[in-house]
Queue: 2 jobs
Job 1
Amino acid sequence: MSAPQGVHLVGSINLDTADETMRLVAAELGGHVKRIPDGEVGERFHWIAFQAQRLAATDGIHHVGDEPRIIRGVDFRPVALDEGVRAETLDLQPLGYAEAALESYAVFEGLQRDGVIAPGTRFQVSLPTPLGVVGSFVVQPNRAEFEPVYEAALARELAAILDAIPADRLAIQWDAALEFAHLEGAGYGAPSETWYDEDAWQATTNRLARQISRVPENVEVGVHLCYGDVGEKHFVEPKDSANLVRFANLVAAKATRQLSWVHLPVPIDRDDAAYFAPLAGLELPHETELYLGLVHREDGVDGAKRRAKAAEAALERPWGIATECGFGRAPEGTTAELFATHRDVASSW
């Protein structure tokens, strides 16, 4: 038997600024978190949606559709290559991840220097997988040739982050959501939407392992495995945690370095043994932290404890708690209460 140990924040938090986010996290959860994200503020409010607009700023790429789909200043339309343009000839404009990370790290560094954030706490940067961005916002006929170009651009963003932020203060999280749409055959996972020749399990795990392996050993790296949260709903409800466990095991085995943590979602209505039973098959090293996303704003402490009780029967290793996904799009005014739920569950178990 085991019990929850520690809190992980997936990344997206429904506050306006990095300063506000980090101060509130430090005040409410400082003794429970090892890493603090900036909340994915600004144009990143809807995870990767802003990438389409960033890509469309490059000559040779255009938005599809005549009418912009603007939400909070971000155009959600997909993009395509201009007629006659080859992806390998593109000089992509900055994707925005390094720029945001460096700006937010300056805030983090100042707060840590002033004693607001505890020494030893790391600054967490969440990045999408190339598969996630390309599969979501590049039209299907262009995906195969565009994916390596986007992957190289994202690698440059990562390199800039690694160059600017001290290794012992940095943690990188790779967010894998579209991967499970492909594996479950739902949403973007429909066969007509794929562009690779490999089996979906090979295609998704090989790609994520490659991203993990880009992060040096002296920088923490983790993965957030996700079934989506558009309108706080999954694109498909997982039958149980078996595919999550299989995916985590494959990725951990294929990466050339050890994962620092793995985060797995738990649907709000699953407090039954059947959902958690596959967790007994996790083959992660003991040093790899495990976090279960069993905190939901709708049923608070009681619901989280009920799901935690069901989870502990399947686990013989330390584990921590989280929400099932980021909560940057949760209703306004719910963030402090969610932090309190994390704290109460982590403190009282």
Note: The mean pLDDT is 93.
Job 2
Amino acid sequence: MTESGNPGQPVAVSEYDASHIQVFEGLEAVRRRPGMYIGSTGERGLHHMVYEVVSYAVDEHLSGHADAIDVTIAADGGIRLRDNGRGLPVEAAEPTGKSAVERELTDLSFGTRPCTGYGVSGGLSLGLSVVNALSSRLTVEIHRDGHRWTQEYAKGIPVTPLTRNEETREHGTEIAFLPDADIFETTRFSYETLSQRLHELAFLNGGLAISLTDERPVRPVRHHHADGLLAYVAHLNPYPPSLVHSPAIGFGSENEDRTLSVQVAMQWNTWSPGEFRSFANNTRTHEGGAHEEGFRTALTSVVNEYARRRGQMSADDQDLTAEAVQEGMTAVVSVKLAHPVFEGSTRTRLSNPEANTYVQEVVRRHLTDWLDHHPNQATAIIRHIVHASTGHGKW
């Protein structure tokens, strides 16, 4: 097991080839019922197309092979995305004889992609093949194996073979696509929507630089946060005079077989009722689930135990409620699992019971340790919570 205050450094794994692609079925069903695959044919589904491509680049970062992603809203309204990872595999695969990249772009599949140090990948849907199927035009350019490779598609169908071009020492993948106007209600991407999500991903993946450029008006932005979730909490807590304590609390851990990891950052303030954001495999879990339940359970227990141990609560006092403990608390919890299970078609509630158990274990151990090593800040936090509980009449 590896633990640190600034977790999330993955183990680099170099193997990534045609054998990693598992075929499910063809793409006709995607064009017939796109909402089943990307949620809707409105703005939400349109932007999900970008997130699906970005998730592949994030996986390269998680595997230790990429540290930069460049996203561009092109002048023609399409999207162009480039990463500096290994590049999608180009070798032919049996028994079809198709190149691995063509299979990735035309077969409805869950490509396990690069195996990360956690045994997880960021994408939660069906990948590049869905984006290809729903685009009137898609081109892929790969720098791998000493050459530049290119191929073009139209509505999911290859219109050129995979072509080996000039030699190069570069590495990475560039995908450009234009959403099909016959499928989507709108094909105009929102700069603000994309920027918000990419900024979020930069927080969740410390050390990964993500840039966004809009060629419609020229307005580039670059997100890069070495401190990860600590920087995220600082972003959500923009008023230093209102902070109950500083620094913020941050910790993380991963299990022994690296199939489950958790990162946590939190800080109390006096200016807001509090804000809690949770993520599973880089996707916002708006409806919460097992990881949120584990966090809230452990948080309430640790705060009550510490307050009694330090004499800020007597044996006769009632326990501080979960509501009081979370008053004014800004927190971000991010878990990554090898086999996430989500409830509902929106996939916004995590169901894995092991996430509840592991998050509880990590929070109990690390939060208790932080409070013990920061007695002045801990005293201020407990005083704030007791005051909040008295004001709400719940203690």
Note: The two ends are 39 Å apart (CA to CA).
